[in-house]
Design goal:
Arc Repressor Mutant, subunit A; Tetracycline Repressor, domain 2; 2 domains
Length: about 210
């Protein structure tokens, strides 16, 4: 096989995989993991069930790929918001705002927070969340401590607590009615900011 033919074959394979992920995302969001059939996903892109098995071992593996793409996209958006900030505190606050907004999205909320634990099982879902998001949270907190905007605390323990707060916020926003999400998001943004902000150094009266 020539290099040109091999390249075209690879491009076609990548395009098919991307189309399968998009179709699976729609189906899982509309029908849930349990009620979604692989045949329907394949039919949505005029492919065969064999095309799915060429890329994914089973329905769970396909869902996991959808889940990881959603989380990578969300993490990239949060990281971009943080990088655009002027200081570590603003970076963390902007990243939090973007994260909570993503949790309000019906597709992200349903697939990551509602269907994820069902499809993957709680232990695997939690491990995936930690693998994808934990390090980013830890880096933001480390930057805050290194810059003096948070008092030095045990980093692992602090990260674990903040991770727990964000998990609770994500699940609550995903379960909430659409009309209630803006208010809930504002409340979580304010409360998490206050709780983490309580670790900020007290101002020195001599320099007040």
């Amino acid at each position: 096989m020539s290099r040109v033919a091999a390249s075209r074959r690879e491009q076609y394979s990548q395009a098919t995989r991307a189309a399968l992920l998009a179709a699976a995302t729609r189906r899982f969001a509309e029908q849930g993991f349990a009620k979604t059939a692989l045949e329907d996903i394949a039919a949505d892109i005029q492919a065969t069930r064999g095309a799915i098995y060429h890329h994914f071992a089973n329905k769970t593996a396909l869902f996991e790929a959808v889940f990881e793409k959603l989380e990578h996209d969300a993490l990239r958006e949060s990281a971009a918001a943080a990088e655009a900030a002027d200081d570590p505190w603003e970076a963390a606050f902007h990243a939090l705002d973007v994260f909570l907004e993503r949790c309000c999205d019906p597709v992200y909320g349903k697939l990551v927070w509602q269907e994820g634990p069902i499809a993957l099982g709680w232990p695997q879902w939690l491990a995936a969340e930690e693998t994808l998001a934990y390090g980013f949270i830890q880096q933001l907190l480390s930057d805050l401590m290194d810059s003096g905007q948070l008092e030095r605390q045990p980093l692992e323990t602090t990260t674990r607590l903040v991770f727990g707060m964000l998990t609770a916020a994500g699940m609550t926003l995903a379960d909430a009615a659409e009309s209630a999400k803006p208010q809930l998001k504002a409340e979580y943004l304010a409360m998490i900011g206050r709780l983490v902000g309580a670790l900020r150094p007290a101002p020195n009266p001599a320099f007040g």
